[in-house]
Amino acid sequence: MSDTIYLTLAALPFLSIRRKQGVLVKMADAEAGISKVPREKKGRRKAADEPETAESVPSKITERILKAAQQQQLEEAEDGESKTPEVEEGEVEVDADGRVQIGAEVTDEDEAAQAHFRSGQEEPKRLTLADIIEQKLREREASTSGGVSKVQSTEDPSEAINPQVVRVYTDIGKWLSTYKSGKIPKAFKIIPSLINWEEVLFITNPVEWTPAATREATKIFVSNLSPKQAQRFLNLVLLPAVREDMAVNKRLNFHYYEALKAATFKPAAWFKGIFLPLILCPTCTIREAVIVCSVLSKCSLPVLHSAAALVRLCQLSGHSWPGPTASIAIRTIINKKYSLPKRAVSAVVEHYKGFIEDEREMPVLWHQSLLAFVQRYKLELSQSEIQTLKSVMKAHPHKEITIEIRRELAAAEDTRTNKVLTGLAAAGGGGGNDPFPSLRQFTAPAAMDLS
C-alpha cells in the first residue's frame, strides 16, 4: 500500500508536465488556425445511420415507388407524352372579370363567313356523361341472368351504387359547386382508380362545378387516367363546360383556359377529346376555334400527334369543308414550325387542291392559312405541287394575299434552280472540262411567269 502511494506521488510531477504540454500544443494550434476534431468510429457512425434510413423509407414503400416509376416510364414511352405541358409563350392577358383576352379580334364578318359555310350542315347528337352512364347500365343489366333489369334507363344511375357512397359523393359535388381554392377531398382524388369511375363521377354532377373545380378535376383525371379514359373525360366534361361558358359570356374563364392547357398532358386525348371534336363540329364558332388554337400554340405537343391532327383536318375540303375554323386550326399547326412528315405536307396540298372546283368565294382566313403553309414549307414542295397551288390561286385569287403567295413560290423555284446549277457546276469541274457550257451562262429572269 505504501509502495503504491509512493509511486502515485512520484508520477504527479510528470502528469502535470504532460498536461501543461497539451495545453501549450492546443494554444499553438489555435494561433496557427489548426482545428483537430476527434475521428468518429466507423461502427458508431453505421449504427447511427442505419435506424434513420430504415425509419424514413421502409422496404415495402420502396418497392411500391419503384413499381410506380417503372409503370410511369412505360406509359410515357407508349404515348409519347411530355412530363408536363411546356409553355412556349407568355401567359395570356386576363381582364378584371377573370376572363382571357383572346378572340377579341374576331370580327362579325368572320362569324358571318363561318355561318355561311356551315349552312345546311346538321350537328350530330352529342352524348353527355349521363347518356354514357345510362347506356353502360343498360348493357350491364341486359347481360345479367334472366334478363331482369334492376335499373331502368329512366332511373338515376346512382341507384346501382352503395347508398353510403352516393351520399359521400353527392356532398362532394355540392362542395365542388362552390369551390374556389384549396385542397380537393381525397375521396374525389381516388375516382380515377375506380372501375366504375364514370358512374361515380356522374354522382358529383360535373355540370354544376365551378371553373376552378373543373380545372383541378382536369389535372387529377388527366394525370391518373389512361389516354382513352382521359379522352372520354375531356370530351364529356371539360369540352361541354368550355363551350357553355363561351356561349354565355363570349369570353372564356381563365380557370377553363388553364384546364385546357393542363389537358395537354395527354396529347392524344387532347386532340381526340377536345381539338378535333370542336373544330369539326358544325356549330363551332370562330371564337371557340381561336381559344383552343391559342392553347395549341402555347403548349409544346409532340409532332406526330400534331401531324396526325393536320392530316385529319386536311381530309375535308370542297363542300365537306368545316369552314374557316378549320383554316384557323391548320394555320396554327403550320405556324408551330414542325418538321412535318412528307405525308402531312402532301395532305395540305391535296386539301387546297379540293377547292379548285369550288365556286364559292373563300374567306380571308382560308387565304391566310395557304400563305402560312407556303411560307413555312415552300422548299419541301415538289414542282408538281407548286403547279397545283398555282391552279388553286387561279381559281381563288385574293387582291393582296395571292401576290405574297406567288412571291414565295417564285423564291422556292429560284432556290431549286440554283441548287441544280450548283450541282451541275460541281459535277463539271473547272477549266476547259465543262460538259455544260451553256448552262453556266443561264441567268434566271427577275420576274418568272407564275401563270
TrEMBL record:
<dbReference type="GO" id="GO:0030515">
    <property type="term" value="F:snoRNA binding"/>
</dbReference>
<feature type="region of interest" description="Disordered">
    <location>
        <begin position="31"/>
        <end position="99"/>
    </location>
</feature>
<protein>
    <recommendedName>
        <fullName>Bystin</fullName>
    </recommendedName>
</protein>
<dbReference type="Pfam" id="PF05291">
    <property type="entry name" value="Bystin"/>
</dbReference>
<comment type="similarity">
    <text>Belongs to the bystin family.</text>
</comment>
<dbReference type="GO" id="GO:0006364">
    <property type="term" value="P:rRNA processing"/>
</dbReference>
<dbReference type="GO" id="GO:0030688">
    <property type="term" value="C:preribosome, small subunit precursor"/>
</dbReference>
<dbReference type="GO" id="GO:0005737">
    <property type="term" value="C:cytoplasm"/>
</dbReference>
<feature type="region of interest" description="Disordered">
    <location>
        <begin position="138"/>
        <end position="157"/>
    </location>
</feature>
<dbReference type="InterPro" id="IPR007955">
    <property type="entry name" value="Bystin"/>
</dbReference>
<dbReference type="GO" id="GO:0005730">
    <property type="term" value="C:nucleolus"/>
</dbReference>
<feature type="compositionally biased region" description="Polar residues">
    <location>
        <begin position="143"/>
        <end position="155"/>
    </location>
</feature>
